[in-house]
Amino acid sequence: MSPKLTYFLILLLLLVAFALRLGHLLAGIFHIDEYISMLAAQMTAQKGGPIFPSGLFYHQGLLLSYLAAPLLQSVGFREEIARWPSLLAGVLAVAAFYHAGRRLFQTSLAGLLALTLATLDPEMIVWSARMRMYALAGLLMLLALYFLAQGLLFRPNRFDRLIGVGCYFAAILAHSVVVVALPVWTLAFGACLLADRRTFKPDWQRQKALILELLFVGVVLAAGVVFAVGGQIPFLSPPAAESSSGPGSSAGGLAGVFAKFLDPGLGWNRIDDFIYIYTADEYWPLLILSGVSLGLALAALFRRRLTPRDLAALLLGLIFILTIAELGLALASTWRKTRYLFILCHPAVLLLAADGLARILEFLGRFLFLRPPTTDPFGKLRTDRRPLNRNSLLPTPYFLLPFLGVILIAGFWAEPALDAGLAQGTGNYNTAFRWVEAHWQEGDRVMTVHPSAAYLYLGRSDYYATQGTARVFVDDESEEEVDRYVGSTLVDSVEGLNTALESPRLWFVVDQDRFFNRYEPFFIQQVFAQMDLRHETGRVLVFLSHPYPRPVPPEPAKIVAANFSDLIELAGYTLDLAAVAPDRTVQLGLYWRPLATHFQHPYKVFVQLRNEQGQTVAQADHFMYEGLLSGSVLGQLKQQQEWLRDTADLALPENLPSGSYDLFIGLYDPATFERVPLSADASGENAVLLATISIP
Fold first, then answer.
1. Which of 104, 139, 201, 202 is the most exposed place for a label (fewest CB within 10 A)?
2. Is 0.70 topped by the overall pTM?
3. Model pLDDT for residues 299-324, shown as the tens digit of each residue
């Protein structure tokens, strides 16, 4: 391929990569942790360092915080501005894949294919458009891998080795998970040095220089490990943190840190998630192509005909396999997150897949009896090592192979790449808190599962609501548990929720996934009983407390048995007419038992108070859980044999005449107004007569 055509194709792919990533950047789709990184960058712009309002120094993504801070300082806070460092890192990574593929595998075909894979990789598109440290860490890991491979294996020299170590140290500053790659890379490079049968044989003078180099590298890597490991100490769970106080605290703290790293064990369930990532619909071809490249390299190794290209494939394959084994079989759950593969494995997998496809295309070219190469258009990579295999270069008839490879990759990945680049968000915590800000009144307070996002947009977060896993510190002054980022008071119980609801107006902002997964059913039901769902943006819910919030009792005061078509049973209720609020509302608590895990329609509850003439004088129709009742929630309640507590605020008219009133309950389909049949119905209208009450 002519240089002009090569450069044109590279430029075109880089423009496509930039456009796809920019599209996702502007789409308004946010990862839940982006707000933490944005707040860290904002604090860096204001304070000179990522020091959160709680006083926590946020070491994670330190390099990204300092890259984004000048942009936010110059133009003010905007989500798109904060994301630009990741975008630039992502595009640079795409370009770096071409250079790394071409140099490691000594053919521009592999470089172009690696460039194409990186351009259209949906994961790279998404992470390159997020204010998270993954794109930057991935770029630095790719550069570290390339320079260390050059400096240790292909053309041993001190400059490349030091550049590689520097990139690795910078990657640790970008994301501390990079430190777990150190033993894997040590084993992989050591195995490749043995396989290559080459060792350093300097004279004594050069050996002294090598010792100084090793000492320098050791100090740098030790500093990186201390930074990464030491940064985990503030994130120990409260029990581990408490165990590190008092006599022997240093040992306890160190043990707690290592407990966060190591949890060895065997079992398919420990590695299946990592394997499934690369056997999913979008990535299984990469796994096959990587297998082709690694298989041919192993074959060459066993035949003692290992070429530099085979050695590169062997190195990348070892890194991939050993990383999966380390994450799944040696490390604690804190470090076994599938998204870490993007930093630790993805560069190796994309390069291996590019080489595998390149080898298949080259074989196809020879199979079609294309003219053998006569020139070396790219130059030798290792003039002091083995000569290049000229049969792998691309002569004139081979010029179609790069286009064929690009077309194959685009045909498979164009649709998911366009889906990622053209996706549009429907709202998130940013739009939710901006809506709260627009409706904020003096004296309001805010509670959320995401204090960092609240502080970012409101400048405050009063309560941190979560149950189960709470990211908290113990405040030195109040001795209360507060969230680690902003210092919000922890609300982890119904009692704490009720205390927070004593404020004049309390906002609660939470996404649906965490709302139904991080809280106990009784907590969720108290929220629905005492707060109104005022706004939905995307999957984020905005609640506002009732003017007169009243907790729903844990158990019913009266027992009933009303079966609605074996879908759900009304088993009890509570009603206290003496507790009429100043706005003339009285709370009716309904206690349901789910009998099925799926409703054919989103049924609505009707509550009717009728006088002696059968006229409805008060009515409170509503959806259970504000229409958010899903099959999974029903299944969870049924499995736990937990009440589905539902409430209706019945507004009593002014000057309601004294007399007897009947309270009826039932279910109906709001689309057709057809009522759900009631077993053993005595009313003749598929309604339950709960009680006859007297109004004096």
1. 201
2. yes
3. 999 998 899 999 999 999 999 999 99
